[in-house]
């Protein structure tokens, strides 16, 4: 019994030290900061998608114009390398947003495990579900833009992008 009492005192001391270290800012502050970071990332990603669509629309409009001077046609057409660069940047941002969602899911799972030991646990899954749904919505918008621009991307870039898209979606679904 004495050994149990000593271990209990040690564990209570460690628990107090952990709570003291992490309670300098309220949990809601950390969660709010994380939510803002995620929503900013999604807004950046949506902006990239609009840029891609505008670039695609601009190149299609310049091809439809019947400009008499070939030099004017070349000036009206956007650079070929700009579209793949924008798509790759958007893909990186999509993967970063996916990592944030997966991190939040992992935190939720760990909190659920700790709740079995008596820790406080917020069971509300609505914010996590909203994150997943908004990420999947942006995923499909970007995927649609990539498929629409597949002719401009080339035979070697498109399969790599599609593979990355599949990895993002499968990791979200599996977790």
UniProtKB/TrEMBL annotation:
Organism expressing this protein natively: Jacana jacana
Record has Cytoplasm as a keyword: no
GO molecular function list: DNA-binding transcription factor activity
Residue ranges annotated for the STAT transcription factor all-alpha domain, each copy included: 90-149
SUPFAM superfamilies per the UniProt record, alphabetical: STAT
Keywords: SH2 domain
Biological process terms in GO annotation: signal transduction
Protein name: STAT6 protein
Transmembrane residue ranges: none
Positions in coiled-coil regions: none
